């Protein structure tokens, strides 16, 4: 391209569109005739190298860019501070981010990135101040509010955390990390149904990753919906082959359902992990007694890929136990920067969930079948369990649920939920009549 200025402008435009390769193609064409313009082009080249993980090259490029500038550009300083951030060099990152702010006090992203550096350095009060200053600069600073919410969660100040998340979701309705963090708060508070609502919204956005499905599995376990729990755990496994706790819970649940071959697959995978090896060996020995002609030396059949969850357009706390849709895309941050391309802030999704104990108490077995169903199916939960039984084809279970429910009557609201469920599943006509007869009798 003959016009160096056009090459620079085209390169910046491509960069802002997220086309890093296209941007690089234009930026390298900027001529030496305009030294300052070439220096600014080099700063963008350094940023591209940072985003590609080429940190050493990026550092050299950005330092060279700064040395060529007659007047130091705050954005170039920010790019260098960001490069050090990704290398976890907190002191260097802090130095250049603070220098950015001195030269440009309204540089919102510099405050946000500085807050992240200070948080990583465990200087939490200073981090809070940096995020608050970012919000003073820009009331719509989504990342700053989200980071403040995370700090509030760490401090168990859930009220303030939820307040910040309310702003975030108002400003950026599709910002998935906010829904995940809100789900985490409800999970900590023991409101697992509401946590499922928040997590399912992320699934509906198409942004569920392995960590999210792990969380969903634990919440479904907490409300005793083991059918959805095992599906969530197995989806987590598909997305992260090294999520060993998910293998463990999936194996136990498949074992419970007497799906012995699937349980065996999960236990065999756990043989590779010392922490689970002894338990897995014991379980395999026990399961072999239930499986005929099962060749332990052969590769296991792959877990089916066609398990689907079907969320409605809007997930609510009432229908949360019936929803999920298996997706394959990883969660990506969607953050609006002030002067730069969107920041890549760390999300709250991960595999370490310290507030989830591994020794959850299981429901107690009751000797009498009638007493067992009475203890298990109470109140509105009867709809959830009828739904699960219908979906799994356990029609006899449906009859037992309704016969042994402790409700004095099945209210109109329960009937309004039950009828669509019966109509949505292929139920033999005679059985449907028996189910209706039982439920109507109870409603008298």
Automatic annotation (TrEMBL):
InterPro entries: TPR-like_helical_dom_sf, TPR_rpt
Organism this protein belongs to: Candidatus Tanganyikabacteria bacterium
Repeat found in the keyword field: yes
Keywords: Repeat, TPR repeat
Chain positions of TPR repeats: 74-107, 108-141, 210-243
Pfam families assigned to the protein according to its UniProt record, in alphabetical order: TPR_16, TPR_8
Organism superkingdom: Bacteria
Coiled coil spans: none
Protein name, UniProt field: Tetratricopeptide repeat protein
């Amino acid at each position: 391209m003959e016009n160096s200025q056009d090459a620079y402008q085209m390169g910046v435009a491509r960069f802002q569109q997220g086309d890093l390769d296209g941007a690089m193609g234009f930026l390298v064409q900027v001529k030496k005739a305009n030294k300052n313009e070439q220096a600014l082009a080099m700063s963008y080249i350094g940023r591209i190298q940072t985003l590609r993980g080429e940190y050493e090259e990026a550092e050299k490029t950005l330092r060279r860019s700064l040395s060529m500038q007659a007047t130091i550009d705050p954005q170039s300083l920010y790019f260098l501070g960001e490069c050090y951030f990704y290398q976890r060099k907190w002191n260097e990152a802090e130095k250049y981010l603070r220098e950015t702010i001195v030269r440009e006090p309204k540089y919102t992203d510099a405050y946000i990135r500085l807050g992240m550096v200070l948080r990583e350095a465990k200087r939490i009060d200073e981090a809070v101040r940096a995020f608050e200053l970012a919000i003073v600069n820009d009331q719509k600073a989504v990342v700053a509010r989200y980071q403040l919410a995370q700090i509030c969660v760490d401090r168990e100040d859930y009220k303030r955390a939820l307040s910040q998340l309310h702003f975030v979701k108002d400003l950026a309705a599709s910002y998935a990390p906010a829904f995940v963090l809100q789900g985490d708060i409800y999970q900590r508070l023991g409101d697992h149904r509401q946590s499922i609502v928040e997590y399912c919204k992320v699934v509906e956005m198409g942004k569920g990753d392995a960590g999210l499905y792990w969380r969903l599995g634990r919440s479904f376990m907490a409300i005793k919906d083991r059918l959805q729990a095992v599906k969530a755990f197995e989806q987590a496994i598909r997305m992260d082959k090294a999520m060993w706790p998910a293998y463990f819970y999936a194996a136990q649940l498949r074992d419970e359902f007497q799906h012995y071959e699937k349980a065996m697959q999960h236990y065999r995978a756990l043989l590779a992990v010392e922490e689970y090896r002894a338990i897995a060996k014991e379980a395999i020995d026990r399961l072999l007694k239930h499986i005929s002609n099962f060749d332990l030396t052969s590769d296991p059949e792959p877990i089916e890929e066609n398990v689907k969850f079907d969320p409605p357009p809007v997930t609510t706390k009432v229908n949360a136990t019936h929803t999920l849709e298996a997706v394959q895309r990883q969660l990506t941050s969607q953050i609006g920067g002030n002067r730069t391309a969107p920041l890549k802030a760390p999300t709250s999704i991960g595999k370490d969930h310290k507030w989830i104990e591994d020794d959850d108490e299981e429901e107690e077995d009751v000797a009498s079948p009638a007493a067992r169903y009475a203890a298990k199916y109470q109140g509105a939960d009867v709809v959830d369990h009828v739904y699960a039984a219908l979906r799994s084809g356990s029609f006899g279970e449906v009859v037992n649920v309704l016969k042994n429910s402790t409700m004095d009557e099945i209210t109109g609201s329960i009937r309004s939920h039950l009828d669509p469920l019966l109509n949505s599943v292929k139920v033999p006509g005679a059985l449907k009549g028996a189910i209706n007869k039982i439920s109507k009798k109870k409603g008298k």
